Amino acid sequence: MYRVLGLPFFCIILLLLSPQVIGQQVALKTNVLFWATTTPNAGVEVGLGRQFTVDLWGAYNAWKFPNDMKLNLYLLQPEVRFWTCRKFEGHFFGVHGHYGHFNIGQIPFISGLKNYVLRGDLYGGGITYGYHWAFGDRWGMEAMIGGGYVSMKYTKYKCAECAEPVGAYTRNYFGPTRIGFSIIYFLR
């Protein structure tokens, strides 16, 4: 896990120390849609030049729910963005990757997960379209949607406590891979 987390943070430090980045904008953000699923999340976006930014966003959920319901995960989604006008203004297009680990299940309102727990990893990438609204010098909001590829490798368990495996699976998926409505604060 440290190798996976270490590389993106090393890239951010390298970008922040690069002479090209000095004086560029830096934004902190959080995706409100993930908070609706009780998943804390945060991101940092650094401006590079006039029309490009690098965004690193992550989410982590370790809450324990009553009745053994599980929605534990961590997810990293780095992205390079091209802005059609200027960075942090209006429309943008991005190329993103994602890596995560999940332990979800016994969720009563999802039929396929009522009696099972899934534990595994996912990775992939895709493209994003979004729009940014600025509110003054320090605040903004953005909405985005992305699509692409996800590969999931996981083990299915009959229940959380007994850890009785039902089988190991690999799933490949093409379709929506990101969605977000984020609140943004600029550090400058």
**How would a crystallographer describe the biggest sheet?**
8 strands, antiparallel, barrel
The span between the termini is 31 Å
Structure class:
mainly beta
Mean pLDDT equals: 86
Helix content: 10-25%
What does this structure look like?
The chain has two helices and eight strands. The protein has helices at residues 2-17, 32-35, and strands at residues 26-31, 41-48, 52-61, 70-83, 90-105, 117-135, 139-157, 165-186. It has an eight-stranded antiparallel β-barrel with strand order 1-2-3-4-5-6-7-8. A hairpin with a 3-residue loop joins strand 6 (117-135) and strand 7. The radius of gyration is 18 Å and the shape is elongated.
Short characterization:
This protein is mostly beta strands and 188 residues long.
Salient structural properties:
188 residues, single chain, 8-stranded antiparallel β-barrel, elongated, 11% helix, mainly beta
Question: Would you spell out the secondary-structure blueprint of this structure?
Answer:
Elements: H1 2-17, E1 26-31, H2 32-35, E2 41-48, E3 52-61, E4 70-83, E5 90-105, E6 117-135, E7 139-157, E8 165-186
Antiparallel strand pairs: 1-2, 1-8, 2-3, 3-4, 4-5, 5-6, 6-7, 7-8
